[in-house]
Amino acid sequence: MRPLKNILFLLILIPFLISISACSKNPYYKRNEFALGTVIQITCSDQRAIDIAFNEIKRVENLLSKYVSDSEVSKLNTSGKLKVGPDLLYVLTKAKEFYITSNGAFDVTVGPLVDIWKKAIKNKVLPQEEDIKKAMQLVGFDKVVIDEKESTVAFLKEGMSIDLGAIGKGYAVDCAIKKVRDNGTKSCLIAIAGDIYCLGNKNGEPWQIGIQHPRNKKDLLDALNLENQAVSTSGDYQQMVIIGNKRYSHIIDPRTGFPSDSKVISATVLAPDCLSADALATTIFVLGKTKGMDLVKYYKNTKALIYTEDEVNAFDTF
Ligand code: AMP
Ligand code: MG
User: Fold this and answer.
1) Does residue 29 sit in helix, strand or coil?
2) What are 114-123's pLDDT values in tens digits?
3) Does 21 score more than 50 pLDDT?
4) Which atom number of ligand 1 is nearest to the Cα of residue 106?
């Protein structure tokens, strides 16, 4: 691995150089808004496309977020059975595929465990083992019945709930990019936190994406040049708590009921679509580096950059 402090310096310089040369090239428009529980950044060659993209992201949020009380996901979590629209049906079908290919490491039925650990992170207090055991009985995509013909989804156990936090943002990026493309826009970058799609290029140069260092906010681990590609990063540094010298992150291993302990601290996936990049980056966190890489190889045109704690430490002393 190479030290990236110099590249960081370059990256700071490059946008400056681009913005100078942009005077003679096409202008770009940028807007940041808050949705899906995070900051969304859109940069486009076409101002109207920015409105189109934000409207689409909000449409998806209103369907798929469990924090929106009348979303389809909230209704399904309350009733245990629902006739759903094409978006939720598609996302759950893909979630089932990742559940199968990951041998259960990726599982959107982790909802009850996510709620327990969210509270633990907020209050900085470990949950009771008894509560984790109870929640684990409600986890398992094998207890979800999807009827594609009837467009219905049903839980086989009362109290189950789904959480699309590991796949929904990627899906929202894909939906927004599709709308922007349909609008005729050729160049646009949509970033919902770490879930990003780079449409086309920026005035003939690839989009530049930096991967944040998981321990030093101001440094980069890597820098990527991308065109017509999705990239997602999952890290253990944004939502987590340290209790008794141990770090507990927001990504749960459904097989133990505890936050993933795979030693991966940053996982970046490059893929043709952002839903897959999003789901795979989270899955790698649970599977660990070796099995995670094997899973990524199974998917076409997909690559991963995976860093463990030891590798990041070695990289810092390089
Ligand atoms: P991400 O930030 O994309 O890695 O997704 C993390 C979010 O996905 C968490 O905040 C939970 O909402 C959800 N989640 C946690 N663990 C899992 C898992 N093993 N499979 C699927 N979703 C998960
Ligand atoms: Mg994800």
Assistant:
1) strand
2) 999 999 988 9
3) no
4) 20
